[in-house]
């Protein structure tokens, strides 16, 4: 017999729309937003991979296409999203092992992820331009 | 009320584990490919790299991991924001459309990726 694992009409205990969000919430929302961005951006990345492997002309075309400011900005944005999403993901893994699960630990973890992302994102600026 | 019929593994624990395993695979792949790009490649090296069986298998593994990872992630986003509670009855319709759209995109990514590797 199939039994639903989830109770119907569960009450909403935490209506996050009514409160000021702490840094941990912003870190979590950004993790989600960067995930969505990467999912959409994967189309661009697959197109770049496809074209670059189509032949020497395709490879040269990709190199040329990535020379413009807009293209560089898009790649920088995707790399930054990937950096943030990866670091926040690693934070999740660390927390799964029971490390940094307290309120203080969560705040510190969020701060470290955001700080490291900013530093690596700036290094990406140097790499791309 | 959002039921879990559209989640990836039909169980929160299964999705939780898959999200982590696929995430680690994707991170390993991103570091590998990112490192290559930072060092810099020409066409011959790039072509040879993706002609090797090892890299093709690794790339396919990353694409399949992405499919599961994106499904679970997009499910989490869709079932949190595109809901009856947030948007009224049209929330259910929007969520269904969103999930169909995501499934189609994932399907395209898997087919396209495979075609790039072995086409």
Oligomer: heterodimer
Q: Mind telling me the C-alpha Rg of chain B?
A: 18 Å
Largest sheet of chain A: none
Q: How far apart are the termini of chain B?
A: 44 Å
What name does the CATH topology of chain B carry?
3 helical TM bundles of succinate and fumarate reductases
CATH superfamily assignment of chain A? Fumarate reductase/succinate dehydrogenase, transmembrane subunit
Provide tags for this entry.
heterodimer; A: 129 residues; mainly alpha; 3 helical TM bundles of succinate and fumarate reductases; B: 119 residues; 5 helices; elongated
Description:
The complex is a heterodimer of chains A (129) and B (119). Chain A is an all-alpha fold and 129 residues long. Chain A has a single domain (23-128), classed as Fumarate reductase/succinate dehydrogenase, transmembrane subunit (3 helical TM bundles of succinate and fumarate reductases, Up-down Bundle). Chain A is 74% helix and 0% strand. Chain A has helices at 23-53, 56-65, 69-96, 103-128. Chain A is elongated, with a radius of gyration of 20 Å. The termini of chain A are far apart. The relative contact order of chain A is 0.12. The mean pLDDT of chain A is 92. By secondary structure, chain B is mostly helical. Chain B has a single domain, classed as Fumarate reductase/succinate dehydrogenase, transmembrane subunit (3 helical TM bundles of succinate and fumarate reductases). Helix content of chain B is 83%, strand content 0%. Chain B contains five helices and no strands. Chains A and B meet through helix 1, helix 2 and helix 3 of A and helix 1, helix 2, helix 3 and helix 5 of B.
